[in-house]
Amino acid sequence: MSAPVDDAVNASRQRDYVSQIALYRHDFRRYLRDLDWADEWRNAFFDNTEDELAYHATVLARIYAAGWNRFGWPEEAGGFGGTEIHRAVYFEELAAAMLRVPEQHWTLEVLGPAVIKYAPELAAQYLPNYMRGDEWWGQCFSEPESGSDLAALRCRAVDDGGGGFVLNGQKIWTSQGPTATRFLALVRTGTPESRHRGLSTFLVDADSPGVTVRPIALASGRRELAEVFFDDVRVPRERLIGDVDEGWAVVMHLMQYERGMYGYATLTTALTELSWLRDEMAAHGSPFAARRRFAQIYIAVQAAQARAATTVRALADGRTVGPNSSVDKLLFSKAERDINDLIMDLRRDWMIAGVAPATTSSTGVGGGKELDAARAKWWYTRAATIMGGSAEVQRGIIADHLLGLPKEKR
């Protein structure tokens, strides 16, 4: 079994993988094919978020020890080097092997690049732990009265005069917040009138005095999100990401990855879900209208992935993506909803009443936990076109910055 590890014997192999992406893909595919615990990973379903994250942390630890998820990340931050294309290939091969992406990757892909660029010392200190599943972070951006309009947020940080800052305020809808080790918090350091010019970004430990985390129970019953309260939380200056009042630059850099790399990984996951669904349809039959709908969604996902691949290549080249990433966000969020709606419609008896054909995989290893996971995914994707910037906001960005359309009259 070919697996790079961090030792002198395989150092040359690591260099080959960095310079030859096709070789990395070939050997990673072989690694996954020969993995003796692949079925355990493939059939691992959970009825709560806490157990799912705990299991996925063990997956990350094993993959990190083998070295495969370290490509595409800089050596200074615990990686082996390479570019975003390596990470895209990593997600592609997980999808091809019908293996679920460890949940921690979703926040790592969004937060990691911003910390690497604007706080390399913090990246070197903490990202290796993130990649190996020892910790994960929550993104504290949204507030009760400031969702897509981040420039209006109220959570404040004040210089304490002693080499640090004091944070006060509330955040909401923090993904993986209930179990996060740290939070990347966007807060106001300028006046309310300064809008986006008066924002700063901090990395705050979840166990800091004054931090209160309240899990939010979703419609599925899972506690995937959280409210986070900061009450006189002291944060040392060393935890500042970038410069004071320069948080908007961090946000803009981060958004490229939230809509680019995150979007690309989401679309590879979508192809995995379509593969499972195709097998179900082939085994149990389906009407022509359902097959046509499946084909339309499949083509839409492939088109969205091709579009997202352009963004991944731009990021790998070090180019700024800017408002173009809003196109990716529109396409992949719609794909998420459409696929889960199709699953709901084609497997309605199972999804609603828990009744499945005798030969379906849903009565196999996954059992009731697989059903719970499918229902939770459907519920979660109801917000796909809202979270991370609503579809309406993305269309506005595209209209204003890409198409140059006239402003709406009010």
Question: What is this entry, summarized?
Answer:
By secondary structure, the protein is of the alpha+beta class.
Structure description:
The protein is built from 14 helices and eight strands. It is of the alpha+beta class. The strands form two sheets. The protein has a four-stranded mixed β-sheet with strand order 1-4-5-8. A four-stranded antiparallel β-sheet has the order 2-3-7-6, with no helix packed on it. Strand 6 (211-216) and strand 7 (225-236) form a beta hairpin. The longest helix has 29 residues, at 288-316. Mean pLDDT is 91; it is low at 1-9 and 359-366.
Sum up the structure in keywords.
four-stranded mixed beta sheet; disordered N terminus; 410 residues
